[in-house]
Amino acid sequence: MERQEKEVEITKEKPSARRGRPKVIGETQRRQSIVTAAHEAFVELGFARTTTAVVATKAKVSKRSIYEVFRDKTELFAAVVGANQHLILDLPRPQDETLPILETLIKIFRLDIDDEAERAREAILNLIVRESVQFPELSDYLYEHKIIRSREKLIEWLQREAERGRMTIADPLLCAGMLMDIVFGALLPRRRLLQAVDRARRTQDIKKRLEIFLRGIGFDAP
Question: Taking every annotated instance into account, which residue ranges of this chain make up the domain HTH tetR-type (predicted)?
Answer without folding.
Answer: 28-88
